[in-house]
Design a protein that fits this description.
Layout (H helix, E strand, L loop, with lengths): L3 H9 L4 H4 L14 H28 L3 H26 L6 H28 L3 H26 L4 H54 L1
Helix pairs in contact: 3-5, 3-6, 3-7, 4-6, 5-6, 5-7, 6-7
Amino acid sequence: MVNLKRLLTKIFNLPRSYFFLLLIPLLLFLRHKKIIPLSVCGAGATGISSEIILLIIFQSFHGYLYHWIGIIVGLFMLGLGMGTLLFIKKFQNIILSKSKRLYFLSIVQFTLGAYLLLILLFTRILDTGYVIAFFVFVAGFIGGIHFPLAITLSGKEKAGLLYGIDLLGASLGAILTTIIFIPILGIVETIIAFTLMNVIIGFGILMVRAKIG
């Protein structure tokens, strides 16, 4: 059996730059058939990781979390529902061509990266629970737009598969963020790593869009 303590010790002793090399394998998935699942996985990882980061920031600023934890999680779910509703009511019947949907998906992916950088900026300037709660809502809102958009590109018959991929991304994001990234890299470099991930995926989506015309 793997000695978990020894394994984690070795991981913690690795140079910090090595963890950014984990982004390189993403380039292998920047292909037409794999880009949508990769996008969903990345969005799931980003959503849960940003929520964890915001909870940690809140805890570090205020020294308590229990009074807000239900509100914060509820705001994420509210944002998720409102984002999905907005897409279904407003965007689904407007963005009809696959090329335009891919372009819109790339914009949403880049928005996730920009959103992470805004967390880094505004939570340092405005260290209030309301700002953090707002950012949690925004994370859910962006995710609520992203997931149904990905389904329209892959087909409704793959909705279950994409949901599983979304959960896989969220699980990996939670594990990597809490056990490896934040303890080793810290919050700032963790945010930068997830920002770069979303930028790479966004450019991958644009590359696929360019191939199909």
